[in-house]
Amino acid sequence: MSELKTLPNDGNVMAFLDSVENEQRRKDAISLLDVFEKATGLQPKLWGSSIVGYGMYHYKSERSRQEGDWPLVGFSPRKQNLTIYVMPGTELYTEKLTHLGKHTTSKGSCIYIKKLSDVDTSVLQEILADSVKRMKELYPGSS
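Above: the chain's sequence. Below: its structure in C-alpha cell form.
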C-alpha cells in the first residue's frame, strides 16, 4: 500500500498563497481565506504543497486497505482555476450550485472556479458550512 503524499504540515499558508504566480488567482486565493473562515470557523492548514485545508477527518476506504486523514473542506489555487474541495460530494449541492455562478464540477468533490468574482461567495459559504457539518456527522471524531 502506498503512503499518502498529501499530509497536513507546518507550511506557511500565506507564504504559499503569496507564491502563486498568476496575480488574479493569488488575490482570489487570499480572498478565499476569509470565505472559508466565515463558513467553517476553522483555521487554514497547508496540506502537501498546494492545498489549503480546514479541519480534518480520518477515513478508511471500503474498497481498499487505504486509510488516512483529509481536510473537511479546502481549496487549491491551480494553474487553470481555483479548486474547491467539498468532501461529501458536489452532487449533494446541485440546487445551491445553480445559484453559485460560473463554475464547473467534477463527478467527485471538486468545484472549479476561474475567478472568484464569477461566483456568489455567500452561496459558496453556505455550501462549505453544510459540507463541514455533514462531514462531522459522517466522521464524529473529526476536528
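The chain has one domain: 13-138.
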